[in-house]
# Entry
Amino acid sequence: MKIYKLIALSLLSLTFACSSDDESPAEEMPNKAPVSENPTPEPIVIDFNPKPASGTPLKAFKLSDLDPSLPSFVSLDNTTPDNTKWEKVEEMSDEFDEWDPVKWRNSFWNYGGTPVSMRAENSFVEDGKLNIKATLDPDPNTDMWFRTARVHSQTQIKYPMYTECSMKTAKIAAFNTFWMNNGDIDNRDEIDIVENNANPTADCRDQTNKPADFPWTPWLFPTQMNSQYFIAKGGRANTENRHGNYDTRFLSDANPNKGKTWDEDYHIVGAWWIDERNVQFYLNGEPAGKVTTQQDMTLELELIFDLWTAEQCNIGGLPEREALNDDAINTMRVDWVRTWKLKEDK
# Structure
């Protein structure tokens, strides 16, 4: 039991998903200025006093019925504060009809202690979707055999805002992520909207291998979001982190995606960054857990997508190398991403 507790503490120090121990610190999560000719102005801070939820049970609906011009929850239970409106941020929204280098870029730092190798060619737009594909390095002797990609928005944003995407995960033992970060591991705010592994290894799924207080639940990963946040000020040793495990099985009976795994269908996953201390997550239009921080999150953040793996069970374990040759299961796909700022409605 003591061994497992030590492992748990060490895994927490790895910051679960979205940090790097790359040996090349010069390329580690670089800061990126917005490319917009009109940089996002200092946001208006709106007192978050949302309309109370109606309390009326949802009626059966289709995801295609949700209004694409507004955050998905507005169509189901509009809790937008009075005297405010959602304004689309085009620089951070995309239907992925083509790769747009004005909106997106790749980064190439690698997660330390993993077989991951980030490459531009492993991200591309095809059939109206952003694809991030895992492929096997042809060199059988390399330790960096998991070729993949990471995609960042060129523009940064801060609260009060909302972003969501429609994504379907790869069916391999790997983390499929949609997150926000400012690009500095030692001085950062980070919101991990979803980190899903739809197919963790058999060993990681085996609950008999884990004591009751093991911090992660990989046997439930196929339907879990694994949302969380990180705040690091003055070095990663001072990192604040809290996470949640909302699950597609928790959705209402009216939701068409209730109980579906993340590789089974496209899921709409989003985050309302309300203010410097509060983030409300959403899944397929429904509230999916909220985090409240102990420190302020005030930095401008990028949107990021990536696909990666590690042998630790808090990630879900390493896939079989042969699985990376199977195009039917090795690709994470994003149908669209849409972002809004919350503005005063004068």
Observations:
- Confidence is low (pLDDT under 50) at residues 1-46.
